[in-house]
Amino acid sequence: MANVTLRNVRKTYPGGFEAIKGVNVDVGDGQFCVLVGPSGCGKSTLLRMVAGLETVTGGEIDIGGRIVNQIEPADRDIAMVFQNYALYPHMSVFNNMAYGLRNRGMKEAEIKTRVDEAARVLELTPMLERKPRQLSGGQRQRVAMGRAIVRQPKVFLFDEPLSNLDAKLRIAMRVEIRKLQRRLNTTSIYVTHDQLEAMTLADILVVMNGGQVEQVGNPLAIYEKP
Ligand code: ADP
Ligand code: ADP
């Protein structure tokens, strides 16, 4: 586990657009932080900076006591669950989850232990030999989460992972993610534009607007304000 602390983080895109204007956020060990706000407010930019997919032009990003501004994505102890979960269509569920670990040269026995454990937690065990096309949308999304879980990261980053699912499935998966969080207790940062999703999931809610933090705190405290 690890804390994530953003200290006066800024992002000016090449061309001069200031997308993030000095953001301070502190996510404690094992907490689930949701970044919420309208389209274009900078959520994705901020998450991508934590992941190392976007350079930081000001301030510091601290993961577990280490400033990661100059550290490669693969060395940040994070795993990201993407919106377009792009599974390899010709590979089984098992191999989809094992792929990244194999690339890192992990031993096959350790890979099997990790994939089996993730499949158990995600209730995918009976589907391990199936191809993605033989799965429902919710099951595919769970495989995408499995690929992140097997990395055993200190921090999970979620980029609108439910936005491609229909309304009913979205609600079901929201509950599943919450359960998974309680079980794994991994520090998480989750981006969404959906207020209800944010409310359900967040320990800490960060409401963003125009590249800045508008409000931060417990979701009930924020939304119950008159
Ligand atoms: P959100 O995730 O909240 O929808 P983004 O972080 O994607 O917002 O975008 C924040 C702002 O930065 C938007 O105005 C967007 O147009 C701008 N932006 C995003 N990516 C780039 C880029 N590569 N170059 C310039 N501006 C960008
Ligand atoms: P490799 O294992 O060769 O790095 P991958 O396809 O697993 O191949 O990943 C490519 C790059 O993306 C690597 O730097 C890897 O650490 C990173 N990566 C892969 N999957 C994730 C993920 N879910 N979250 C964060 N980084 C990832």
Automatic annotation (TrEMBL):
Membrane-topology annotation of the record: Peripheral membrane protein
Record keyword Translocase present: yes
Q: Where does this chain mainly localize?
A: membrane
Q: Where in the cell is it found?
A: Cell inner membrane
Q: What are the residue boundaries of the ABC transporter domain, all occurrences included?
A: 4-226
Keyword set includes Ribonucleoprotein = no
Q: Which GO terms describe its cellular component?
A: ATP-binding cassette (ABC) transporter complex, substrate-binding subunit-containing
Keywords noted in UniProt: ATP-binding, Cell inner membrane, Cell membrane, Membrane, Nucleotide-binding, Sugar transport, Translocase, Transport
GO biological process terms, semicolon-separated? carbohydrate transport; glycerol-3-phosphate transmembrane transport; glycerophosphodiester transmembrane transport
Single GO MF descriptor: ATP hydrolysis activity
Annotated function? Involved in beta-(1-->2)glucan export. Transmembrane domains (TMD) form a pore in the inner membrane and the ATP-binding domain (NBD) is responsible for energy generation.
| Protein family membership | Belongs to the ABC transporter superfamily.
* Designated name of the protein: sn-glycerol-3-phosphate import ATP-binding protein UgpC
Write the span of the intact protein that is present. 1 to 226 of 362
